[in-house]
Structures are given as C-alpha cells and as structure tokens.
Amino acid sequence: MENITIEAVAAEGKCITRVDDQVIFVPFCVPGDVVDLQVVKKKHKYCEAKVVRFIKKSDVRQEPMCEHFGICGGCKWQNLPYEEQIKAKQKQVEDQLTRIGKIELPEFRPIMGSVKTQEYRNKIEFGCSNKRWFTAEELAQLPQKEEETITSLKERHAQNAIGFHITGAFDKIYPIKKCWLMDDLCNEIRNFVFEYADSHDYTFYDLREQHGLLRNMMIRNSNTGEWMLVFQFHYDEEGDEQRALELMQQVADKFPQISSLMYVDNQKGNDTINDLDLILFKGNDHIFELMEDLKFKVGPKSFYQTNTEQAYHLYCVAREFANLTGNELVYDLYTGTGTIANFCAARCARVVGVEYVPEAIADAKVNSELNGIENTVFYAGDMKAVLDDGFVAANGRPDVIILDPPRAGVDEPVIEVILRAAPERIVYVSCNPATQARDLQLMDAAYRVEAVQPVDMFPHTHHVENVVKLVRR
Fold first, then answer.
1. Is residue 29 annotated as a catalytic residue, yes or no?
2. CA 70 and chain centroid, separation
3. 406, 383 Cβ separation under 8 angstroms
4. Straight-line distance from the first to the last Cα atom of the chain, in angstroms, rounded to the nearest whole number
5. Angle formed by the axes of helices 240-254 and 185-199, to 10°?
6. What is the secondary structure of 189-226 as a DSSP string?
7. Are 435 and 91 in contact (CB under 8 A)?
C-alpha cells in the first residue's frame, strides 16, 4: 500500500489508518506520517501492517532517544513527544470508560504526567540466550558465501546475548547496549556481566533445549540509593555452581553499590522465581523504598510499583478519593505488599488488606511492623474465596473499599460481595481502563462515579493507570 497517511494513535501503542474502508494498525509511526505499508496480518475486520518506507515524516514526530527503538518493542511511543503521549492516554481513558462503561461520567481530570520520563523504572529483567536476534540490517552485513543460506548463516553466527525477548520469537534475545528506562548503572552492570561471561566462555541459556548456565538477571534500585541484583542460573554439570559464584564475586568487586546480591538455580521450564528458594551471596535479602515518612521493605519477590516517584502521586490520588476522616474501616483489596494500606493507615481507624500471594502478605505485615502501624490486618488467599459475606461479618462492614486489581479487573463474584457490603465510597485504581469500565458498569446501579483521574506511570509506552472515585447512590 503506497502513499498512506497515518491518521491517529490507536490501542497497544500502534497507530491507525484506513484504506478503502479497511482499518489498518501500524506500529512505530505517528499521526501525520506518509508511508508505504506492507500488510503482515489480515483479519476479517482489520489488517496489521509495517512501514517499509517513509515518504514524509510528520511534524509531530520526534527522534527516538534509544538506538534500539523499533526492535526491542518496549517503548513504542519514543517517536511521539511526551505531551502528545499523555494526550493520547487521556483520550484512551475517556474513550474506554465512555464506550465500554456506557455510564454517566463526570468531567475527567487532566492526566498527571510522570515526574520523570527517563530513568523512571526501579526494576528491569534481562533474559540471557545463546541465540541472539539479528535484525535484517545486521544479517545483510554478515560475510556471505554463495552456497550459504540465511539459516546456516544464523547458525554459524549464533551469538550469546543479554537483553529483551523478541515478540514472536520466544527463544531469541535482542542484545541491549543501553536502556533509558533505568539509572545508567543498570546498563553498566548488564554490559559488564555480558562481557565477562562471554569472554570467559560461560554458557548462555538455550530457551528451546533448556540448557546453559546464565539464564536471567533482575536488577532493582530504590530511592534510598540501594541496588539489588538477582541471578538465575541453570546448573547443567559439575563445576557450574563454582563458575556462578566466580561471576558473582566479579560483579560484587566491580559494583560495591549492589547491597543485595542473590542467586538461584532454576531448573524449571519458566523464569518465575516465586516458588524457588533464593540464596544470598552478599549483603541483605531486601532493599528499602521511602514514601512520605514510611519505609517499605522490597524483596526479590515483592511487587512494588515500578515508577517510584509516580507511585507516590498515584497513591496520593487514591487517598484523596478515599476522603478519610480518621474513623473509617477501609478494605484494601488486591493489596499487594500493603503499600496503599499502610499509606492510608494513619488517616483511618483500621485497614483490612487481602491479597492472593502469601509472600506479598508477609511483606505487608513486615511493612506495618517496620513503620509502627498497628491498625492493619492482612489476609492471603484467592479474592473470590476469601471475600464473602462471612468475611465482611467477621471484619466489619467497610466504610471505604480500595480496589487495585490486576489487568483482568475484578471478578464478578467479588463485585457482588462489595455491593452487598455497601461501603460509602469505592476507590478503583486500574492499570487497564477497559476492564475498569466493564466493572464500573456492573456497579453503576448502586454507585455513581464522582471523579476520574488518569495517571501516567509508564512514559513512552501505551500503558496508563486510572483512578475512579465512586459514591453510593
């Protein structure tokens, strides 16, 4: 398709255009670009395409800061100025709540832009692989012989890599030199690990065959200046553990800033560590985050909002919408590590937190103890199983319920219990306005939406948080 003008920003970080009444979604471009397109997927009602040539670049466009833009896929909006990004996110929230919710809504508050648009993340995971991803440009630069095929070239030039998984190629890792989303020390640590391991003939993990020593690394930092590094290894043979220890000693010597260095031998088919016992190599098994006068303990398995500074503003909105006077019983459902619960505890009579992950609830209790908070209680278990009429009878009818569910939203049986509990106010924090809109519709007969506040937690991506205040009719 030639000479096509990109019309608008669409869902999932893509843009949209129309040709002969056919809707086409295109990544890595901006409204106003004039392009030639190649269709890569055709559905009944829409197509997906990629840009093969820019004829005219939009006046709105900006140059992406990252050399990996368009390949790693993590920041699809780097070519869109930040003020345009937050306009698009505001529109996304308004469209989804209006179109899906189909309920009466107040005027939306302007979106809260992120304090930082670079180095805002406090956690990044990198995959390790013995099969790095080659771009088409890189393949073209490889020395070729007439008799060699692209497949044999890839095999002959198979290389180790530490970086991000490529969408649509689960066993390939694209090597990252510099990621702009975390403090630059993160890049220094990752690059050092790669250079040391690659030059000392460490085996990198083969995702298909499931062998190779160096498998995964997770880096966290905090606003207290602490750093955590967690290695996942995969021991295949005698001597692997010793080599792993040698690598970690090299890292510990090179980067004294790392105050928490841990590792695990992961023999599972996936990279999750919640069910594994980690071993402490150096320092503490946790770091701390500060928020107002509170201190939060963050371990390797803890959930903590990945944009620390913006999380504070998000929680301030939630606390404001809760309209606490000091006398309320608050339920904090999907409490995670109890961050919101502990953040609100000083302004209410009691907080009851519920969360599925037992380790998170253990963290929540520790965080209450750490801050001398005595008016919180936490329960672990599946929300549908824990939250029932008996639970409400035992813990008291809540005056306020705060919801911060996963992307799938709130299960309908949980909404039914909430409606029967009939709190005066509900504060719904969502990372997915589409499922939030669906849930608001289910509560609309009993609750009126009084305020809506979008919050940008993830600059350069299409993701957006949204906080809604509901008041009992």
1. no
2. 19
3. no
4. 53
5. 140
6. HHHHHHHHHHHTTPPBPBTTTTB-SEEEEEEEE-TTS-
7. no
Residue whose structure tokens are 């030199």: 177
Q: How is residue 468 written in tokens?
A: 């809604």
> What is the full DSSP assignment across 127-139?
EEESSB---HHHH
Task: Convert 302-335 to b/e letters by CB count within 10 Å (16 or more is b).
Answer: bbbbbbbebbbbbbbbbbebbbbeeebbbbbbbb
pLDDT along the chain (473 residues), means of 10: 94 90 93 96 92 95 93 89 96 96 97 97 96 82 62 64 87 93 98 96 94 98 97 97 98 98 96 94 96 94 92 98 98 95 98 92 95 98 94 97 96 96 98 97 98 97 96 98
- Which ranges in 325-431 belong to alpha helices (H)? 339-344, 358-370, 383-386, 389-395, 412-421
By C-alpha distance, which of 373, 367, 328, 374 is closest to 347?
Answer: 328
Q: What angle is formed at CA 379 by the lines to CA 377 and CA 382, rounded to 5 degrees?
A: 155
| The two three-digit tokens of residue 387, written as one number | 């939250």
Q: Which of 29, 75, 186, 431 is catalytic?
A: 431
Determine the residue type at 289: E
- Report the amino acid identity of residue 112: M
Closest CA to 200 of 237, 154, 244, 252: 244
